[in-house]
Amino acid sequence: PVGPVLPVLGEGVRVPLAAGGEVEYAALDYAASAPALRSVWADVAEFAPLYASVHRGAGHLSQRATDLFERGRAEVAAFLGCRAADRVVFTRSTTDSLNLLATALPAGTRVFVFETEHHAALLPWRRHQVTFLAAPRSPGAAVRTAGEALASAPAGVPKLLCVTGASNVTGELWPVRELAAVAHRHGARVVLDAAQLVPHRPVDIAALGVDWVAFSGHKLYAPFGTGVLAGRADWLDEAEPYLAGGGATRVVARGTAGGVEVEWARGAARHEAGSPNVIGVRAVASACGALAGAGYEALAEHEERLLGVLREGLAAVPAVRELSLFGPDAPRVAVLSFTVAGWDGAAFARALSERYGIGVRAGLFCAQPLARLLLGETAGVGGGGGGNAGAEGCGGPSQAVRVSFGAGTPEEHVRRLVRAV
Ligand code: PMP
């Protein structure tokens, strides 16, 4: 068995089994939150004694922290292949980044989004006119569906297409470059939800041709609390600040007719009011550097091999059905959901934890329209057998089981899961 590509925290953590004894924990829920890289933790520990408030203090450590914070921004920009004029705004998460962008859309913007998206990409646009695009059954159909919808939208109004890079339910890769090209042909802009893509594949904003990219640090081997929205400056600079407060302002003065008048900052600061998460930004920058340094090729090769072990193992179990939108041969990252006949996903995931020390996720994965669509297609596979607690009585399981892994996953964890299934 081959070990991990990059060392992560949590290796060797032992957990109790229901039957007694204990076992090394197998963390197979990277798509929810990946363990932090040891190198990220070491960088944070080195910085921790020196941190101080940024952009405000005159002291030596404040200046140094400001320098490191802004260097983090430049490092993330380089990691994402940002264009010179692009902004890199630090947020709390992908959810936060997409909500920020939603508040920055010009009045009258038409938003186009596939109904298959994660709720974080599906729901922030509701104050605008949104067209929900039907689930496509191939990458080509996704491009055609988006093209047709955009073509029938009125000319002369701002348009935004929101797309995912890789599905958090099926792991399937979406044709981002092609979607960006078709969107631009119809005068629309594109935001990429890269939450599940950037942990597995390089994301180059210029090469993909997208206008904005959003992702979360905690899925990219950094701890919780920091997200990124990177991309075109114009809409961001013209919008009302996402948060009103200190740091987002240039001048605040008493108004001539009473009250206060505000001149807001331009640039990333406009949307980063309040004291920023300096440690979180250093952690994300460190994770970006580690991944770029190790090379995505090595990571993708490792994941591809383990995915092969997983899929071959699951294919030998007749009760197991993989969930897929684009078909079994579609390229995907190391995220895979499946159902097991006679089992509800939640009960199955609990059994994996209690009997085998394996951590996976069960449910609808915050992408309920997609998960329900795919689970509906497995209806009738279930039935028979016990352990189907929580099924919704439609003949199929109400929840799927999701396995996801990455840089810190040894082959033994995947083999243990296959044996357990
Ligand atoms: N988009 C996708 C595809 C995701 O998988 C997730 C997290 N599951 C999000 C967005 C939201 O990320 P966060 O919870 O970090 O805001």
From TrEMBL:
Cofactor(s) in the UniProt record: pyridoxal 5'-phosphate
Stored Pfam families: Aminotran_5
All residue ranges annotated as the Aminotransferase class V domain in the record: 28-417
Gene3D superfamilies: Aspartate Aminotransferase, domain 1 (3.90.1150.10), Type I PLP-dependent aspartate aminotransferase-like (Major domain) (3.40.640.10)
Organism superkingdom: Bacteria
Keywords per UniProt: Pyridoxal phosphate
Record keyword Chaperone present: no
PANTHER family to which the protein is assigned, alphabetical: CYSTEINE DESULFURASE (PTHR43586), CYSTEINE DESULFURASE 1, CHLOROPLASTIC (PTHR43586:SF8)
Protein name according to UniProt: Cysteine desulfurase
Species of the source: Streptomyces marincola
Source organism phylogeny: Bacteria, Bacillati, Actinomycetota, Actinomycetes, Kitasatosporales
